[in-house]
Amino acid sequence: MNKRTLGSLEVSALGLGCMGMSETYGPADDTESIGVIHRALDLGVTFLDTADVYGTGHNEELVGRAIADRRDEVVVATKFGIRRVVGGGVVEVDNSPVYARTAVEASLRRLNVDVIDLYYLHRRTAEVPIEDTIGAMAELVTAGKVRHLGLSEVNADTLRQAHAVHPITALQSEYSLFNRALADSVLPVARELGIGVVPYSPVGRGFLTGNLDLLRNLPEGDFRHGLPQFQGENLDRNIALAERITGLATTLGVTPVQVALAWLLAQDEHIVPIPGTKRIKYLEENAGAADVTLSPDQLAEISSAVPVEAVSGARYTAAGLAAVNQ
To answer: Residue 277 CA to chain centroid, in angstroms?
Structure first.
């Protein structure tokens, strides 16, 4: 797989989001999940994304087991700052310098690595000045515990303030055909500062997978039950939009997922989506998107098929939205 750069960090053009291997999208199997990670590495998908809060530490431990004998092949990204997830995107956030120093030690232990390649602040609260948090994270770089720093779900002003304290390598935020707010204000600043962008939920939390029947019958424990875009009339309208992408994919001879990921890859050369999966067949489908080239006319047609204003419902509950774009 081709490589891309996030700041000065070289990674595979697509990453692998590992969260669903431990929580959020229904049951998973550790043995199967480790097999997915190994297959990802074989395919050249070597940028792995996790966080300390995923599965309350289970996900980092799982990734650690999977890469134990292949550490030199992998760029490991993890996050700190969310102490607890309540639901609907509602989180309890701790950005304190003291917690940063404690959290990194726990992540290093669970991942069983000597250094974390990319360490994100997962969510930000204005109660702690961003300069204080980034200052503490910069100390982790100096100490050799972390190589690069990242932020997640911050606004343009916070991104500038943080980058002035220590170079920020990557911004991870939700970005897809279904959620394009990032492109209006934050993406231009990231480009200006030389900060890479790592879209999470790049296939619209499942709307762009082509498996639309599943969205009406989500498994028990799937956190999408609590999200506005998956409720009532919102769900009906959004499925209708998703069907347009399914139709375009058929015309292009690829899958809806590959359309969604190829569209994202075409938005900027320093964008690296991290689609998540716990199945090898979906991993292989995702990886195939890196080989899909879309013409300007095709990109425009895809964009117009899902107008920003046509997506129905917010991406999180009102309380959950309070923790993003901070």
So the answer is: 12
Residue where the block lists tokens 């109660």: 127
Token code pair at residue 3:
């490589």
Find the mean pLDDT for residues 293-310. 95
Q: Return the minimum-mean-pLDDT range out of 70-74, 287-291, 306-310.
A: 306-310
Query: Is 119 in a helix, a strand, or coil?
Result: strand
Distance spanning both ends of the chain, measured CA to CA: 34
Q: What is the mean pLDDT of residues 212-228?
A: 85
Annotated catalytic residue: which of 25, 54, 200, 282? 54
Residue 304: exposure state from Cβ atoms within 10 A (0-12, 13-18, ≥19): exposed
What is the spatial distance between Cα 155 and Cα 158, in angstroms, rounded to a whole number? 5
Q: What pLDDT is recorded for position 317?
A: 86
Residue 120 annotated as catalytic: no
Strand partners, 131: none
Q: What is the DSSP letter of 167?
A: -
